[in-house]
Amino acid sequence: NAEIPAFRWHDKTQDRSLVCRHPRTAALLEQQIANGRVGILTSGSSHANLFDGGAEASPFSLDALQPGGFFAQARGAGLIALLLLNPLRTLRIAYLSLREYWSEVMQGLSPRRKRGGHLPSLGSFPLLRVMSNVIFREIETAAVLIDIYRGVPAIYATYYAYDASAHDLGVESSSAYRALHDIDHCIGQIERLQRARLVRKYTLCVLSDHGMTPSEPFEDRYGQSLGQHIAGELATGTRLSERADGEYAPLHDARILWKEWKAIEQNLDPAAARVARRIRSFAARRIRSQLQAPEWQVQRRQDVVVQCSGSMAHVYFNISRQRMDLGQISAIFPHLVIHLLAHEAIWLSVAREGTQTWIMARDGILSVDGQGQVTVEGIHPLQRLPEPELAAQQIHRVSQFHSSG
């Protein structure tokens, strides 16, 4: 993951903000990481991942979206046929979809009552949550089970419903726990089938790509975003950008499903296809306004760009197309770092000076030089962490990336 500073970041040389969930970004990153090497999923399958790992089949993987679509292929048509022939799985998808839809409606109403109109990012659009958290997950599980029946040599699948729910509604929200329970059920189905060793022996590995720290959005607590707060500390008239290209991941899911749905219709008899077409047209009306929202416009050049990923934010100043050192920033905005650290919600400010990394807190400064040597002035800024020295080296590594803020 070298030179990938966060889930969202800004490329100053090309004046564009990026998010890993965007298909074009995923494809560029995989090319950069692979660098001509053979992927670990060669001759295998990659389901709903950012990268395809060289897989022979990669349904719903972002960097491998093909115009033909998964269900337009014989394998996809076979999968939908198996789903339709399994009434229990079909009923399960219908039940889970209705449950998810109703839960999302209620989640959207609750914050409206409690916080005067604030809604989770998808609270106003439960249909997209149903697609992301139920339909994708169930289709993906069925596809993995078929791969095991076929004896595919390597299978890699990502279940991201918990991640999405926990980010939007909280790590310990009922929606997050329910998503985790449903994912556990899917993994249980896969585990039982792979244990049977029908064609070959499989080893099942369950991984978590990152942890989750309970946190509160800056804007909820202080009535303005972190970017707006930073802009307020700068000169009047500062222009701010906090939007990354392709920010709304479920909209991409919806577009994928719409293309796939057309392929499904072609594999059904006329009567069933008519019903599917009606459903697709009904849902299309519901999301058309979202798909054509202004967020899809090309990024304009801004003075200050703030890209947040969880509790970490990358801040960029477009005074220069090159990354600016701490000394250069301080010469233009001499009080910025001090004022930011004075804010109760900001723990650390990290900046680069050549090959050195400066980690600054209210009551201490830590520097890491190009050889990894650590120097502390005042109280160690990272002392509250279980492994402060390791954390210092990790922060130093990320801060030296070309596209870090």
Overview of this protein structure:
This protein has 405 residues and is an alpha+beta fold. Helices cover 46% and strands 12% of the residues. It contains 13 helices and eleven strands. It has helices at residues 23-34, 74-85, 87-114, 126-150, 161-169, 174-195, 218-222, 226-233, 249-266, 270-291, 326-332, 336-342, 388-399; strands at 8-11, 16-19, 45-47, 155-157, 240-241, 304-309, 312-317, 349-353, 356-361, 364-368, 374-378. The strands form four sheets. A four-stranded antiparallel sheet has the order 8-9-10-11, with helices on both faces. Strands 5-6-7 form a three-stranded mixed sheet. A two-stranded antiparallel ribbon has the order 1-2. A hairpin with a 2-residue loop joins strand 6 and strand 7. Helix 4 runs parallel beside helix 6 (174-195), helix 4 (126-150) packs across helix 9 (249-266) and helix 5 (161-169) runs antiparallel to helix 6. The chain is elongated.
Question: What descriptive keywords fit this protein?
Answer:
405 residues, alpha+beta, four-stranded antiparallel sheet, 11 strands
Question: Can you describe this structure in just a few lines?
Answer:
About 45% of the residues lie in helices and about 10% in strands. The chain has about 400 residues and is of the alpha+beta class.
Quick check: average pLDDT? 78
Structural class: alpha+beta
Which stretches are low in confidence, meaning pLDDT under 50 for 5 or more residues running?
A: 112-124, 289-301
Count of DSSP H/I helices? 13
Summarize the amount of helix as a percent range.
40-55%
* Spatial sequence of strands, sheet with the most strands: 8-9-10-11
Largest sheet: 4 strands, antiparallel
H-E string = EEHEHHHEHHHHEHHEEHHEEEEH
Report how far apart the termini are: 16 Å
Q: So what's the overall shape?
A: elongated
Radius of gyration: 24 Å
The number of E-state strands comes to 11
Q: What amount of the residues lies in strands? A: 5-15%
